[in-house]
Amino acid sequence: MLYLLFLLLFIACKGSFLKTEPDVRSSIISVLEKVTVFIENRYRDINLDAVLGFRVLQGIVTQNEKWPLERELLAQHTQVESMIKKLSSLLEKACLYDLLSEFAPILGPHFWIIPHSWNQTDPLMAYSSFDAANCFTEKMSDACFTYLLGTWKENGNSCIVTSACRNAMTKPACSNYCLSHQLLYFLFADVKGCSDLLFLRTQDYKNIFCASMMKINLEIENNGFNVSSRDLFMENIMLCGMSGFSDFYKLRWLEKILTWQMPKEGCFGEPSKELERSSGVENQKKLLRRKVYFAYV
Ligand SMILES: *[C@@H]1O[C@H](CO)[C@@H](O)[C@H](O)[C@H]1NC(C)=O
Ligand SMILES: *[C@@H]1O[C@H](CO)[C@@H](O)[C@H](O)[C@H]1NC(C)=O
């Protein structure tokens, strides 16, 4: 689903780009229509990422007033809006909201906002090397998220930054999903309006994280976009795009991503055997925790 996001980010955020690339625009829409069909068939298997991704998408489309107003574009906007309506009702049927109440605050339709100004990453700010071995666990980052969101207990306070979380979320040289979760932590704090002193340095951390995520994405590109790295590649684009770094929106990347959709199923990535077997709550949770991305979109 992170995909879907990303694709629509393109549509929504880069008005000028839109105007000059009508073919790209209609490719994106037709890809999204296939995705909708896929989700229609498989909404029971939807995961947290998918819902989250969809909410970001929805935020972007509904908050974007700069949608070009020519007639053809208006027609496309209507098309996208009706797709969103359909997806929205499908995702409600997916019933993840009960299941994942820890994340409920981020799953609401109004949680996500789009950047008001854009900048580019500075390659000099990227880590010179990554230290994948010494990062934190996903359990740890989930716990830190719940302290920020106030969902660590019923009616819990939000914006709590423990020293363990501060250390983990600012740890240098993290890579891959650890790195994207560090950025996500600061994005959550933004949206929650947290005022801990740590967040005075939010922009500095975003600059470092996204410069490093750009470095990783360029490496993934140089390695020929192997299947196992595609999900991370797109997650990086989504999160740094949301953080205001427009250099993640590269036409050549978008064109590449559009080729990854499976023509028959409409989804992206490789169907996993595990997914086929899973249906229960526990499995869903496990899938989520272990980040088995079945790349919905
Ligand atoms: C853009 O980012 C660079 C470094 O990443 C920073 O020095 C500069 O101040 C930023 N510009 C704006 C307008 O925020
Ligand atoms: C896939 O690409 C990633 C990222 O560039 C790289 O670290 C990994 O070794 C590659 N895997 C295979 C199987 O080629």
From TrEMBL:
- Tell me which UniProt keywords the record has, alphabetically: Signal
Q: Where is the signal peptide?
A: 1-15
Reply yes or no: does the keyword Signal apply: yes
Gene Ontology annotations for the cellular component aspect, listed alphabetically: cytosol; membrane
Signal: present as a keyword of the record? yes
> Which InterPro entries does its entry note?
DUF4735 (IPR031751)
Protein name in the entry? Chromosome 16 open reading frame 89
In which organism is this protein found? Phasianus colchicus
